[in-house]
Design brief:
The protein has 345 residues and is of the alpha/beta class. 23% of the residues lie in helices and 15% in strands. The protein contains eight helices and eleven strands.
């Protein structure tokens, strides 16, 4: 490895999130509070070849983990193709290739994802009750999502993590049920505090079920013990069951317990376009010059300072399509709300 990518606070960037599409077949109320967002034209989407190229460069700069996201990433045609391409980066330093999905397509394609080179998977499930699931996601497909979890286990896409956004008045009464599900199916259950993903316009702190309350609800039925692992740049506080049962609990609390001080992530958007007038800077060690061939301009959200050391000072024409968005919830001097930039955990 010839160089290390760092942000303006000197933190080494090791994790890359790649959004393959902004489309989704679910309509979760906390993600799309105002209905269907504008969809970028197909011709503006980064091609698999472009994604492969920039990921190759990122790995050369020290990226060790790549997670494919969306929208719903499996709505991108032939996703196995890009998984296969990215899996070839493992001899170059990539250690982990993962996918976050709503699980809808997994019953039919979990095995092909594994065969293509995917290591593990995270599946979003906000309720185990059909009616609540439909109310929160806008679709009546809980049975199919649960079948997708089973298919992922059978395909060996483990360890499997299940994400649930907990919103007061909707699913806080299911916290212990989710813990029971983790024990029964030997999966990692991650509870996420409700965040202001719409810049806070419809979000209310009264709807937040705190990480502390989530743990208390689980402890009442299944006592937990903190896992003896260094948190590092992980987003979740991790727990095991005191009675030794299988499964794991993770609590992600960006609202009540901001955790971005050790953030190691950067994001590549599906279309690569947002605020093309801004110029970001990344500090680099000698040998990272090849990064300049592809990335014309690194545009960070407004609350991320642009005063980075050693500007890359790039000029490639097509590279202005690429946006590298630093995940930054309440980082250091950031004055904005946790998630105004829409950076999910």
């Amino acid at each position: 490895m010839s160089s290390t990518l760092k942000d303006s606070y000197g933190r080494a960037i090791r994790d890359l999130r790649v959004s393959l599409t902004d489309r989704c077949n679910f309509r979760c109320f906390y993600c799309l509070p105002h209905g269907e967002p504008p969809i970028a034209p197909k011709e503006q989407m980064l091609s698999y070849e472009e994604i492969e190229y920039v990921c190759d460069v990122f790995v050369s700069l020290g990226i060790q983990k790549i997670r494919l996201t969306g929208g719903e990433p499996m709505m991108r045609r032939d996703i196995e193709t890009i998984i296969g391409k990215l899996s070839l980066l493992k001899p170059k330093g990539l250690q982990d290739l993962a996918l976050t999905t709503n699980g809808y397509f997994l019953p039919d394609r979990a095995r092909s994802l594994k065969a293509a080179g995917l290591d593990r998977i995270t599946i979003s499930v906000d309720s185990l009750k059909p009616e609540t699931f439909k109310q929160m996601t806008g679709v009546d497909v809980l049975d199919r999502v649960l079948a997708g979890i089973a298919a992922a286990k059978q395909a060996g896409l483990e360890p499997i993590k299940i994400n649930a956004v907990i919103v007061r008045g909707h699913n806080e009464d299911e916290v212990a049920d989710f813990a029971a599900f983790a024990r029964e199916h030997d999966v990692g259950m991650r509870f996420i505090e409700f965040m202001p993903l719409d810049s806070g316009h419809d979000w209310s702190r009264a709807d937040v079920v705190s990480g502390r309350e989530i743990r208390e609800r689980i402890d009442e039925k299944f006592p937990l013990v903190p896992m003896d692992v260094a948190r590092g740049s992980e987003t979740s506080s991790r727990f095991r069951f005191a009675d030794g049962a299988p499964g794991e609990i993770g609590i992600i609390a960006p609202v009540t317990e901001p955790f971005c001080g050790a953030c190691s992530r950067i994001r590549l958007t599906a279309d690569g376009i947002r605020g093309v007038d801004g110029t970001g800077r990344i500090s680099k060690e000698p040998g990272a010059g090849e990064f300049a061939v592809f990335v014309d301009r690194v545009n960070f959200d407004d609350c991320v300072p642009a005063a980075f050391e050693d500007s890359l000072n790039l000029t490639a024409d097509r590279a202005s399509r690429v946006l590298l968005c630093a995940k930054h919830r309440q980082t250091k001097n950031c004055g904005k709300q946790n998630s105004e930039s829409g950076c999910p955990p």
